[in-house]
Amino acid sequence: MEDYKAQDNALTNNAVTLLERNLTELQRLQLERILDANLYRNLDHLSLQTKNAVLLIQKNPRIDWVTIQNEIDESYSKDKNATGVVIYLDWKEVEKGKEKRISIKGKIGKAN
């Protein structure tokens, strides 16, 4: 089985490196064209957007689906007769029995 976490880390590091290189280039252009106010503002805006992209890549506010998939794979390897999985994703702590969860039911095909 492939190690998707290692692949994800490598891609994340590569993306951050490329964006940081672009950021350095934008800053160099800002210094070279400091008297062109419009260009300077545009480059400043692009620099800010690039920094935001780096932040999103590094912090990754999304759910770690790879970890969930690995847990499913491990559980299935232990019980080949399993026909599905129930997953609760809670974003707020509440008293047991007072949970208000949305139910999503569907059939998921096997990925290629």
Q: What structural category arises from helix and sheet content?
A: mainly alpha
Q: Based on Cα principal axes, name the global outline.
A: elongated
Q: How much is the radius of gyration in Å?
A: 22 Å
> Average pLDDT, to the nearest integer?
86
| Uncertain residue ranges | none
Q: In percent, how much strand structure appears in the residues?
A: under 5%
Number of helices: 3
The ordered H/E elements are HHH
List how many beta strands DSSP finds: 0
Report how far the terminal alpha carbons are from each other. 13 Å
Helix content class = 55-70%
Largest sheet entry: none
How would you summarize what this structure contains?
This protein is mostly helical and 112 residues long. It has helices at 4-32, 37-59, 65-78.
3D structure, described in words:
The protein has about 110 residues and is an all-alpha fold. Helices cover about 60% and strands about 0% of the residues. It has helices at about 5-30, 35-60, 65-80. Helix 1 (about 5-30) runs antiparallel to helix 2. It is elongated, with a radius of gyration of 22 Å. It starts with a helix and ends in a 34-residue tail after the last helix.
Features:
single chain, mainly alpha, elongated
Fold topology:
Elements lengths: L3 H29 L4 H23 L5 H14 L34
Helix pairs in contact: 1-2
